[in-house]
Predict the structure.
Amino acid sequence: MKKLYSSALAYLITIMITPAFAATPPAVPAKISYTVSFPEAQAHYAEVEMNITGLAQPTLEVKMPVWAPGSYLVREFAKNIESLSANTRGKELPVTKINKNTWKMNMTGVSSVTVKYKVYAFELSVRTSFIDASHAFLSSTGIFLYPKGMISQPSTVHIKPYKDWNKVSTSLEMVNGDVFTRTAPNYDILYDSPLEIGTQDVFDFDVDGTHYEVAMYGGGNYDKERLKVDMAKVIRAEVNVFGENPNKHYTFIVHNKQRNGGGLEHLSSTVLGASRDQYGTPGGYRGFLSLVAHEHFHLWNVKRLRPIALGPFDYDNENYTTNLWIAEGFTAYYQNMILRYAGISSPQDYLNDMAGDINTVENQPGTKVQPLAESSFDAWIKGYRPNENSYNTGISYYDKGAIVGMLLDLEIINNSNTKYSLNDVMKYMYDTYYKGKKRGYTDAEFKAGFEKFAGEKLDDFYAKYINGLAPIDYNKYLNYAGYKLTDEFADNNEPSLGVFTNSRKIITTVLRGGAGWVDGLNVNDELTAIDDTPVTEMGSILKGKKIGDKVNVTVTRDGQRIIIPVTLKRNDAVKYSITELPDANAKQLDVRKKWLHL
Ligand SMILES: [Zn+2]
């Protein structure tokens, strides 16, 4: 039944006469509010009360998303819910669980309901919730149930803080100036707005009319005044790419831990992981700003300019796209480039960062197995579910996507005689699809965007580097800017077992095609001796051996001692750096200037 009823009266009559059809959404929007309290914060629980009034439907289903947008893995957030019950005006309402993340109630004669449940939260990551006596980080997709069919409806969230908690950091708007009462115009925004609640250290600054708030949890050796200046530089450099900042307010939530990293993007906020002491070293500090640049760049690239599959979201299932190499890979490309634009990285810093990406990709056997588009599509089952063989079977759409970003940037700058760059493609796509057509882009549409500014067809490029497995011709592109790749290991004649081990000499990876792969060393084997020499330190175990030598490798496998003859092969690792061509011509220098913002 698709017809929309023209009046509330017709709708009511329909309900009365034909209840079987009454599953149509109610004509008058229901009112939805949540109260979240933490009577047992120390034991990692939130208690949620969801109130819905104004209902006029025979049944109600409430659901929990199975994933958090931006993190492409089904995480089954409903697994953390317990003691769910419902009542109406104080009277218990029976609830039936009908699948892993859906609870159903009979609403005959009932117009309001309160659903109560507890959520266990003890996983501090950027995409999961964590509660203890010191703070609550609420990742909304794992906290708030939604009423089926009402995803576009507004809701309010009232927070009852634990003990001395006195701050809420979130991009959700306040209601009546009350920091503990927030509102979301629809569920896509509620689910895109994490909340940090506690006694966090908050500082703020403005960048050209947009207000930025930074909420620091966990302490650390950061200098607020220095961060304000440098974060503003990063933000300005990004606004310059897209030509506008669509937010009036933006919130950075930073979790400082002994060792932490990573981030998750949202529409008007982000959650970052940092190590408490990382702000004190040049590399650590630049690493933090690079993470800021990455997640903030996403507010355009993926949160607004997005692959068509990524919104409106299906919160029940995987949302497949072949374009994470643009959404994530290009964001990874820009996270370093933006620091260059902002003057925080030197040109050499930038070239070193890019050489690092190239080494990561070129040393990974999986780069010869999994095309970039497939890496994106299978993020749900491969990228986010790595195993001991992933290094051999896959490639990261971040690392290779960043490289493709560089290739296309150089191609466009060179072909257009420095008139355009990848920045023009990003802005054009943002203007055309997010602002103009108000939808995501298809694969073909983004390709057409590249072609428009490159002034050529890119079928061959896509066949080789996006959908295929051709070795990347780095020097063709670097040459445009008067650079080339140099491999420091090119003349290396070291023999190798072709395995990686941990500090306990246990094999963690067997490299595809290497000596260990060919002769049968396994992950989890503990290396104990090479010929008659006990393995004490991994660095020197092949001292005096040559490529082609046959050695007896003694390992402990499943508690048993086994001797495996292995024929040593050449260590094929590469170590590239990007170096200047000595005789770069005027055009190459122009391309370089445009590319690196010299
Ligand atoms: Zn990202």
In short: The CA atoms of residues 322 and 373 lie 5 Å apart. Residues 265, 294, 298, 328, 331 surround zinc ion (CB under 6 Å).
